[in-house]
Amino acid sequence: MVERRSPKPEAEGSSPSAPAIYKKIMRNPIKFIQEVKQEAFKVTWPTGKETLQGALMVFAMAVVMSLFFLLLDQLLKFFLDILLKVSI
């Protein structure tokens, strides 16, 4: 069987060894750290209002889902009680 390789050595999966990105990182760790620092400065953190809204939405969805599962559990219990009374 013939092994086929991509004509681009930097293409992911073209080499059976580590991908090309790992080879770049290992060659110049200082440059990698500088790039990470540049990317970290681009991060935009949510405001306090956005964080509060997100937390309230998570709390509201948790309440809604807990009520849903409570009702589903009660409904299944009701039908199971009927089924068990009929079979006795």
Please give the count of helices: 3
User: Whole-Å distance between the termini?
Assistant: 68 Å
Number of DSSP-assigned strands: 0
> What string gives the helices and strands in order?
HHH
Q: Helical content, roughly?
A: 55-70%
Structural domains: how many: 2
Mean pLDDT score, rounded? 82
Class based on secondary structure composition and strand pairing: mainly alpha
Taking pLDDT < 50 over at least 5 consecutive residues as the criterion, the unreliable ranges are none
Task: Please indicate the percent range of residues in DSSP E strands (runs of 2 or more).
Answer: under 5%
In short:
By secondary structure, the protein is mostly helical. 69% of the residues lie in helices and 0% in strands.
What are the SSEs and their pairings?
Layout: H1 20-27, H2 29-41, H3 48-87
Characterise this structure.
69% of the residues lie in helices and 0% in strands. The model has no long low-confidence stretch (mean pLDDT 82). It has two domains: 43 residues, no CATH class; 44 residues. The longest helix is centred in the C-terminal third of the chain and has 40 residues. The protein contains three helices and no strands. The relative contact order is 0.05. It is mainly alpha-helical and 88 residues long. It starts with 19 loop residues before the first helix and ends with a helix.
